[in-house]
Amino acid sequence: MPPGPDRLDATDARLVQALTDDPRATVMALSQSLGLARNTVQARLARLESSGVLAPFASRVRPEALGYRLSAYVTVQVVQRSLEEVAAALAALPEVLEVTALSGAADLLVRVVAVDADDLWRLTEQVLALRGVQRTDTALALRRYVDHRVDPLLKRAAGERPPAG
């Protein structure tokens, strides 16, 4: 599949990987380390940012640093044809970090954070009270074994081979 506005080619992948390794790298430093013209790096970065390929910087902030020590996943069953309205209402809640539509018994998977158990209770009650929500089920996240990552995919896209073994 050829590169498009939302698909990285090998050079884009190398550029994003270099930014992942050193998020504060300057355009000039990236240019030198990748062997690309400064204007090429600048143009590619601008395209990656404007097309939404690069996530906003705020996505790197850990909720724990803001006092939200509990993380949970709430599955939500929604009245038919209310999915968009419920998703919009969830997006209005500051403690909701992600909302993903699912196939299967649950309609939405909602990643939430809370200060403590009482705060999580308040939040899940608030979700259940939303118009269009039929049922919720909450699972407390105990430990994260693999953080969100795309580095292995970037390496593959850049043409790097995985280590043997």
TrEMBL record:
One of its GO terms (biological process) is response to amino acid. Residues 8-69 form the HTH asnC-type domain. Pfam families: AsnC_trans_reg, HTH_AsnC-type. Transmembrane segments: none annotated. Keywords: DNA-binding, Transcription, Transcription regulation. PROSITE patterns: HTH_ASNC_2. It comes from the Bacteria. One of its GO terms (cellular component) is cytosol. GO terms for molecular function: sequence-specific DNA binding. This is DNA-binding transcriptional regulator, Lrp family. It comes from Geodermatophilus nigrescens.
